[in-house]
Specification:
Elements: E1 3-4, E2 6-8, E3 11-13, E4 20-24, E5 31-36, H1 40-59, H2 62-78, H3 80-91, H4 95-115, E6 123-125, E7 131-139, E8 142-146, H5 154-165, E9 169-173, H6 179-191, E10 199-201, H7 206-215, E11 219-225, H8 228-238, E12 244-248, E13 253-257, H9 263-275, E14 285-291, H10 295-307, H11 327-343, E15 346-349, E16 365-368, H12 375-378, E17 385-391, H13 394-401, E18 406-407, E19 411-413, H14 417-426, E20 433-434, E21 450-451, H15 463-467, E22 469-477
Parallel strand pairs: 1-5, 8-9, 8-11, 9-10, 11-12, 13-14, 13-19, 14-17, 16-17, 19-20
Antiparallel strand pairs: 2-3, 4-5, 6-7, 7-22, 15-16, 18-21
């Protein structure tokens, strides 16, 4: 059985405690690796290594840093199929989706490398003569990255690549359910020529490793993707040391279907949004808000399509829906199905743990007669469960869409431009799709949400550089005399 070590100061090392934990295939429950469990001493060593490496790395011209990322991108491309199959074994998502996950990492590596010749500031005229004004971007310092299990290489790449090109040094903690893909990403960056100490990987429990990252005073910023509860805790704890914090948290994303929509197209989007990645996306479509006139036909078509989905091991080419990540999540989904039934929602399809499959499988599940205030319509389930909610008109649909605490992604299916633009203007979300599902972000555009989905930061696109840099304003006075802004203006 392969053993996976920590990566500290450019070397693969055993954990100080000697403890390890198991990495399990959620489709077969087979052991696929033994992972070293870091402790407080390991995190301290990693932080010290990152601190020591910062001056040299941040002083390296960004185009030279970019060469390493370009090499890493090409290596990711060369290993795409191998990494995709490994991801399906480790996380469970079907192989075609795993390929998309790896492609996102490839795209982000290329995109971030390209930023090595940009890292743009701005210039602006001064109000005084013989004076030049500009802004420049500077790295933050040592940055802590904490990533989730549902996109085991894409989300790490979303954080690692921009943080590196900006000149930061990193402490990286991947999710304990899917550490191997992150380990492979680090191996690729090491092989691409990343100097020792610049990127350090520590695997282990959130209460130990994650807590140490949040509390270590040498770490100047923390970027976290995960649950709302953990995000709130990180924000509160990091505030004690005035750390810069970037949070990407939950979603309860709506698809609005109006009475003039192309229903077959809408069904395509609902099935993909609700059951793609087994519903384990922060952008998953867990609510369908349908105009009352077309709700019966929409429900009929949705049930027909969903019944055709094949659940099973994601390595099999005919599989549409893979397992959920672990038994805890499996039981959580089953609990929410029971909650929905007790609240009076009508279960029209699915709702059961699938047996005798050995892994963590749950049936694609549809509820109807759901009211907006039910828990299944308010709380993030993170599984293959979708709720259908009736709306009277576009204003009612938008009101229902906005009735949750999250605000990540949203969608509307309508042939009416007025409906589309009203949705863009009024839906409280960081992302709105018109006649497309709630999932499918592109890496050159900002990604993130409002309300309880995050704290205002955005990942990917040009905002990725903003997340991992500090802005400095520079005034260059070549007048040869004391000039006083505002005061010396007549």
């Amino acid at each position: 059985m392969q053993e996976y070590k920590l990566f500290i100061n450019g070397e693969w090392v055993e954990s100080s405690s000697g403890e390890m934990f198991d990495d399990i295939n959620p489709a077969t429950l087979e052991l696929i690796g033994k992972i070293h469990k870091a402790n407080e001493e390991d995190v301290k060593n990693a932080v010290d290594a990152a601190e020591d490496a910062f001056d040299t790395w941040s002083s390296t011209p960004a185009p030279r840093r970019a060469k390493i990322l370009f090499r890493a991108a090409r290596m990711l491309e060369d290993r795409k199929e191998e990494l995709s199959r490994l991801m399906t074994m480790e996380m469970g998502k079907v192989l075609k989706e795993a390929r998309g996950d790896v492609q996102e990492a490839i795209d982000m590596a290329y995109y971030a490398a390209g930023e090595g010749r940009r890292l743009l500031g701005e210039t602006t005229p001064s109000e005084l003569a013989d004076k030049f004004c500009m802004t420049v971007r500077r790295p933050i310092g040592v940055v802590g990255l904490i990533t989730p299990w549902n996109f085991p290489i894409a989300i790490p790449a979303w954080k690692v690549m921009p943080a590196l090109i900006a000149g930061n040094t990193l402490i990286f903690k991947p999710a304990s359910d899917t550490p191997i893909l992150s380990i492979e990403l680090v191996k690729i960056l090491q092989e691409a020529g990343l100097p020792g100490g610049v990127l350090n990987l520590v695997t282990g429990e959130g209460k130990t490793v994650g807590s140490q990252i949040v509390h270590n005073r040498k770490i100047r910023a923390v970027s976290f993707t995960g649950s709302l509860e953990t995000g709130k805790w990180i924000l509160g704890e990091a505030a004690r040391d005035m750390k810069k914090v970037s949070l990407e948290l939950g979603g309860k994303n709506p698809i609005i279907v109006m009475d003039d929509a192309d229903l077959d197209l809408a069904i395509d989007g609902i099935v993909w949004g609700a059951f793609g990645t087994t519903g384990q996306r922060c952008t998953a479509a867990s609510r369908v808000i349908a105009h009352y006139k077309i709700l019966p036909e929409l429900l009929k078509k949705l049930i027909e399509r969903t019944k055709k989905l094949k659940t099973g091991n994601g390595l099999l080419e005919n599989t549409d829906v893979g397992p959920v990540i672990n038994n805890s999540q499996l039981q959580k989904i089953a609990k929410y199905v029971d909650i929905g039934k007790k609240e009076g929602a009508k279960l029209v399809l699915g709702g059961n743990i699938i047996k005798p499959l050995p892994g963590y499988f749950f049936e694609p599940t549809i509820f109807t007669d759901v009211s907006p205030d039910m828990r299944i319509a308010q709380e993030e389930i993170f599984g293959p469960v979708v709720s259908l909610i009736k709306a009277q008109d576009i204003d009612d649909a938008i009101h229902i869409a906005n009735s949750v605490e999250y605000g990540l992604s949203s969608s509307i299916y309508s042939a009416n431009l007025k409906n589309a633009f009203k949705a863009i203007e009024k839906i409280e979300a960081g992302i709105t799709y018109i006649n497309a599902s709630t999932i499918g972000a592109e890496i050159h555009l900002p990604f993130g949400g409002i309300k309880s989905t995050g704290n205002g930061t955005r990942e990917a696109g040009t905002t990725a550089i903003e997340e991992f840099t500090e802005l400095k304003t520079v005034y260059f006075d070549y007048s040869g005399k004391l000039q006083k802004a505002q005061i010396d203006i007549e």
